[in-house]
Amino acid sequence: MPLFRILASFFLVTLAGIVPAMAQDGGLFAPRILVNDRAITNWEVEQRIRLLQLLRAPGDLEEEALEGLIEDRLRLDAAVAAGLSVTEEQVIDGMTEFAGRANLELEPFVAAIGSEGVDVRTFRDFVAAGVAWRALVQGQFGPRAQITEAEIDRALALTQQAGAARVLLSEIILRADTPAFQEESQALAERLKDQIKTPQAFASAARRYSVSPSAGRSGRIDWLDLANLPPALASQVLALAPGEVSDPIPLSNAIALFQLRAIEENDPVEAEGLSVDYAQYFIPSGNVTEAEKVRARVDTCDDMYGVAHKQPEERLLFSGALVSELQGDLALTLAKMDPNETVIFGQGVTMSVLMLCSRTPELDIEVDRGQIRNQLFNQRLTAYADGFLAELRAEAIIRTP
């Protein structure tokens, strides 16, 4: 079997019709742009476009290629100025990790992208810039990004106390209900996390990839009380700055990415968790028309008994649980709902009419302070890195030849 067919579910596109970056003046190896008098050639731009298309990057690929190459030059120059260098072993490790996102060893991955016109040097340079930058940022800003116990307490108060904070999010929900979809969606989610830099790019990716009903709204969802989200998700969201994208979050049948659009905080109060009571009326036939008829007949959770009175007992489930104990997709769906609101949840034999009955405070919820510390640390480190890169760009001389 040709190697590229092995990668078909990962790449999903071919490069037969790729349009190379057009030269400004001169030939393929002529300078396209100068960064502090160091040339980025037309060939490098074309190669980066090919790599981005293989990785299914959203947005204007030529613009993304130019921006990425400029930033890589600045990152590498800053690392050199700080006396840092990356070893061949570190670069190979980074390349191997990247190839692993496609569930491939390094050698077949390099062969596969090479068969589509991406030179191994392009891939190597792409990875090397990231490795050098991470080392520089960790060394320069790591000690300044440490998180205090008081900051963890504040995060807990905001994520566990109803009304302490609410957030505006956009979401990308990727299908992961089979092993094949799970592997493909995990790889796609990691690439999107690395590639999405703007709200516009996130919106474009949501419209293109998300299986959530919110895809038609570019992934946008309404204000959510942070305490309604499962703690693992809430702590990730709280660690984001507006415009930033979360790490891929596994749900029971999906993988999710979230972008924070805005956060609104009230005064922090003593932490407490939330439990939810909900009802599910199962539609094992997967018939959406039947589900809509049930929705039309119920206004409160008690109405579910009337709908189910002639049906087998197992078709109706009433349940209550801490938000932290719910499966990710169920917790996320309930977080978006108001009391007595219904939605159609799941599909096929797992389809149900889901209704939120109530939310109730629960005291003394256990939390993973270490996880929250790591998420807040990574967010702060990213903020330092972004600010440093902005300074490097402002001081650089970037011009066309």
Give a short synopsis of this structure.
With 401 residues, the chain is of the alpha+beta class. It has 15 helices and 11 strands.
How would you describe this structure to a colleague?
The chain is of the alpha+beta class and 401 residues long. 46% of the residues lie in helices and 17% in strands. The protein has helices spanning 3-6, 8-11, 42-54, 61-81, 88-100, 106-115, 120-141, 149-160, 179-195, 199-209, 231-238, 288-297, 303-308, 328-335, 369-395; strands at residues 31-35, 38-41, 165-175, 224-225, 249-250, 254-265, 273-282, 316-322, 342-345, 352-362, 398-399. It has a four-stranded antiparallel beta sheet with strand order 4-3-6-5, sandwiched between helices. Strands 8-7-10-9 form a four-stranded antiparallel beta sheet. A three-stranded antiparallel beta sheet has the order 2-1-11. It is elongated and about 75 Å long. The model is unreliable at 1-24 and 268-272 (pLDDT under 50).
